[in-house]
Amino acid sequence: MTSEKRRIEPWEFEAFFDPRELRKEACLLYEIKWGASHKIWRNTGKSTTRHVEVNFIEKFTSERRSDSLISCSITWFLSWSPCWECSKAIREFLSQHPNVTLVIYVARLFWHMNQQNRQGLRDLINSGVTVQIMGVSEYCHCWRNFVNYPPGKEASCPTYPPLWMTLYALELHCIILSLPPCLKISRRCQNQLTFFRLTPQNCHYQTIPPHILLATGLIQPSVTWR
């Protein structure tokens, strides 16, 4: 059973959540579930003069019940990961609402070279918040449940190269493990192409899980000859 409000249009979903695009504005798709109820509340939000995370927190605290005895699970699907200020605001919100658990899926990492943003994500994760890069299953879930897709197009979710998701997942591992950045992103304004470049160091090879390195092609699978 679900309770839904405004869905976003297909073009909005592609504009906001394509991992290759560096759109300035942010979009939030969220689900809220209270206690043992099977009812899921879904809604969407966009950045205004403030970031979408702050808008959600203020909306939630002003409209929702504050019964600390009833558990509340929240799932966010964000087009950009939280900045350091939003990470701090999220931690403060959760400390004031111990009955709330939060899982965050992000399409892209926001200014991931900035040390404050990296520390903010680490602090957020260390406080108990799950932060992951959106994969194919999350994109399909969002398409089905948050997008005003044309009739008969439920299975027509846009597909994006898995490598982009893998590169962001690699960089998120670097952030979690307090490693220096290994993913550099640049954009050529003339043709609007986004370029991803990996600059791994020895510490990355020594610390990052091998399956992540294999997925990005940074290492090759070992072969045993008989």
From TrEMBL:
Zinc recorded as keyword: yes
EC number: 3.5.4.36
Subcellular location: Cytoplasm; Nucleus
PROSITE patterns named among the record's database cross-references: CYT_DCMP_DEAMINASES_1, CYT_DCMP_DEAMINASES_2
Domain CMP/dCMP-type deaminase, first and last residues per copy: 1-124
SUPFAM superfamilies, per the entry: Cytidine deaminase-like (SSF53927)
Catalysed reaction, written as an equation: cytidine(6666) in apoB mRNA + H2O + H(+) = uridine(6666) in apoB mRNA + NH4(+); a cytidine in mRNA + H2O + H(+) = a uridine in mRNA + NH4(+)
Cofactor: Zn(2+)
Keyword line: Cytoplasm, Hydrolase, Metal-binding, mRNA processing, Nucleus, Zinc
Pfam families referenced in this protein's UniProt entry, alphabetically: APOBEC4_like
Single GO biological process annotation from the record: mRNA stabilization
A GO cellular component annotation in the UniProt record: cytoplasm
Main location: cytoplasm
Top-level taxon of origin: Eukaryota
MF terms in GO: cytidine deaminase activity; mRNA 3'-UTR AU-rich region binding; zinc ion binding
The protein's assembly and partners: Homodimer. Interacts with A1CF; form an mRNA editing complex. Interacts with RBM47; form an mRNA editing complex. Found in a complex with CELF2/CUGBP2 and A1CF. Interacts with HNRPAB. Interacts with SYNCRIP.
Role this protein plays: Cytidine deaminase catalyzing the cytidine to uridine postranscriptional editing of a variety of mRNAs. Form complexes with cofactors that confer differential editing activity and selectivity. Responsible for the postranscriptional editing of a CAA codon for Gln to a UAA codon for stop in the apolipoprotein B mRNA. Also involved in CGA (Arg) to UGA (Stop) editing in the NF1 mRNA. May also play a role in the epigenetic regulation of gene expression by participating in DNA demethylation.
Similarity remark: Belongs to the cytidine and deoxycytidylate deaminase family.
Protein name: C->U-editing enzyme APOBEC-1
Species, as recorded: Propithecus coquereli (Coquerel's sifaka)
